[in-house]
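Margin note from the TA: students keep mixing up input and output lines. Inputs are the sequences; the output is the structure of the whole complex. Example:
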Amino acid sequence: MDEEDNTTYVPYSKRPEWSDIEPIPQYDESLPRLIHINYDKEYTDAMDCFRAIVKKKEISERALELTEFLINYNPAHYYIWKYRQELLLKLNCDLKKELVNMEENTYSWMKSYQIWHHRQVLVDNLNDPVDEMETINVVLEMDSKNYHAWAYRQWLMTRFNLFDKSELDYIDDFLLEDIRNNSAWNQRMFYYNNRPSILLDAEAENEINYAIEKIKILPNNKCPWTYLKGIIELNEKTLLDYPDIEELCTQLKDDKSCIFPLSMYYDISLMKYKKNPTKESYENLLKILKELEDRDFRRVNYWNHKRNQLKFFNKQNDKSFD
Amino acid sequence: MSEEETFEKNKHIKYFERCFKILPYHYTSADTNRMTFLFFCISGLDLLGALDQVITPEIKQKTIEWIYAQQIHPDPKIGNIGQCGFRGAPFMGHKFEPNATETIHEPYDASNLAMTYTALISLIILGDDLSRVNKKAIIESIAQLQQEDGSFSPVIFGMEYDMRFLYCASVISYILNDWSGINIDKAIDFIKKSQTYDFGISQGQGFESHGGPTFCAIAALSLMGKLDEGLISKKDTLSWCLSRQVNGFQGRANKPPDTCYSFWIGAAIEILGGYEFIDFETHKKFLYSTQTNYGGFTKYPEYEFPDILHSYMGVAALAIIPEKTPEIECLPQLETRLNMSKKTFDKNFPNNVFWKNK
């Protein structure tokens, strides 16, 4: 902070209401100092008082105010957060009010682990999801891939059993906005994987069609391809059980700007080959690998490695097609 | 971005040297994590071959003393309540006592697994033999930090728990040569449950797969000697990692590449034995483009100012590359699981009191 902004600022240690406190400095006695942070003097002053009240385990309104001041300087200071949580509980503060009070901070520090953990502690104590979904929605509107917000959403859903079907519409809105948003795709899988009821065949069918529709919009997007595999796995089937998927791959595989249809086509062809190895299908596999090498040039060595694995399979099964 | 895109070794040495001494005020949010930043500077200088040149024997010794002054020992009256290990800095007002063997318990005085991990690695890099480390107290504390689901919380008074701290607990157990503080079956169970439908690994069950926890899980499993047991499908996890290469590496599917994932994902790939499958040249080019004129690296090429984490990860990522072109020939191989120079590890590690004569 600039000096001028603080002409009227009175340090905690100079305030009459703090005169009973003997500030405790940070004993950083290695000279020259190492990894020395050039703190603002306001932070140093407030921390000196903080150290003193923690030492005497003070539970008071002024302590609560001090934690808020310090958190604004250092939102990652988990000791201060912890102390604040204890103060809130011991002073019988309105935790719902605290959630509202911390709303702006949540938006400002949405990438801080601590602010989310703070909310989680409060909500857990309240034993009530209150309006937390709303807060999460605001954050995800600003940053649709915010890891903390999605993780907290999942915790809330699990803790309070909030597996309403409307979650699927919510996710779909994200994918309409950005079809490549992997956080949203992951949330969709989370929904089916963690809700109390199991995945029905008809639902799996629906989800597969959902992914296929999204693939048709943008084939060179890894997310729905992975989602397809995930749903099939969850439904305890394999790619071979869904001829629609093979057909989709066949339709899209020759588009040279795409990797994923051809890559899944390779997976399906390899599965078939392992059941019935013929020279013709082997040569087809080699052809696919060659094409994948050309298109996916960052991973040439990887596709070459796949070729070696294929040859190893042949050797093990006494197939000499080369 | 530098005009000539090559590895700016000397600028990086200067950068770490500056950070080692003083950090600007916006690092206030790192007040509880200074140990981690100390590790980045020391290990960064070590990787750049400049540790002895920049840090005199006297300052080295002072650094060792500072690290030991952050150690929390059991309280003679109440014993070990899970708080033993290292603090990130003396921010709670403790006296400077590097030779203490007891710590009078005070409220909120608790170690943090990430700080214990970086303290131990820093001591090893500085050539200390760990003889003042209270192994028994640390191992007993670790046991109290493991959660019912197998993951770890960093501090005893409860915080978020996830894959990061499972990794830290594993490195600590490895260095102290004692795994009795970890319930390994539970830890493996947690890692398995954190593998997602795309075979990447997330911070915990249900979350999105992510480069950071993927490294943490793979390195932890490797240190435990349980890589095959802990991964549902090693080849699919490797394939997920390889798919993260854009030019540099992204941390999640369809995210932009970011310097630190060159380490997190690169190291995971190396441990899985697939480093030969990546495209070295574009990877290096990306990293060179995130260097700054002030030395150090940024997160993204378009950023102007470096930060310590990305600077360290940039150097460490380059050190992983097995076939070194002339401009990075100066970098030693990395001991990726611990994230330090392999050369220093080979030289100093066998001398620590927990491994000597073992």
